[in-house]
Design a protein that fits this description.
The protein is of the alpha/beta class and about 130 residues long. It is built from two helices and eight strands. The protein has helices spanning about 15-25, 80-90, and strands at about 10, 30-35, 35-40, 45-50, 70-75, 95-100, 105-115, 120-125. The chain has a four-stranded mixed beta sheet, with helices on one face. The chain starts with 7 loop residues before the first strand and ends with a strand.
C-alpha cells in the first residue's frame, strides 16, 4: 500500500472568474475546463471544483462550502521570491513566516486566503533551494 498517491481533491468555489484568476496567477495552476466548470492542475496533482451550476456526484456527506478548504503547496523558489510573488499579486500574508512540518519534513510556511476565504499555505523546505 505504500505506492498510494493523491490524484485529486475537491474544493468549492463561488465565482469561477475570480477563482480561475487566483489559482492560475497566484498558484500557477493550469485551468482545465470540465463540462460547465473547471479543474486546477499542478503537474500530476489536480483540484476538482464544485462551483456555480456544478455539483459533482457523489458528494461528501457534509458538503465543503466555498471558503471551507485548507490547502498547502510547496514553494520551490526563495522565501524572498515568495514574499515578492504574493505582494505582486496583492495577496495579504495572514501568518508567516512560521515553522511547519509537511511531507518533506520541516519548512517555513506563509498563510493567505483564496477569493472565497479558504486557507492557502506555501511551504518552503530548507532542502529545496
Amino acid at each position: 500500500m505504500n505506492n498510494i498517491k493523491l490524484d485529486h481533491c475537491v474544493i468549492h468555489v463561488s465565482n469561477w472568474e475570480l477563482s480561475n484568476e487566483f489559482y492560475s496567477k497566484v498558484l500557477g495552476a493550469e485551468i482545465i475546463p470540465i463540462g460547465n466548470g473547471f479543474s486546477y492542475r499542478f503537474g500530476k496533482t489536480q483540484l476538482n471544483c464544485h462551483g456555480p451550476n456544478i455539483d459533482g456526484t457523489p458528494v461528501a456527506k457534509i458538503k465543503v462550502m466555498p471558503g471551507g478548504s485548507d490547502l498547502c503547496f510547496i514553494w520551490e523558489k526563495s522565501i524572498e521570491e515568495l514574499k515578492q510573488h504574493l505582494a505582486l499579486n496583492s495577496i495579504e500574508i495572514e501568518v508567516g513566516p512560521v515553522k511547519r512540518f509537511g511531507v518533506n519534513g520541516e519548512g517555513i510556511s506563509f498563510y493567505f486566503r483564496d477569493p472565497d476565504g479558504s486557507l492557502m499555505e506555501f511551504i518552503k523546505y530548507d532542502n529545496k533551494k
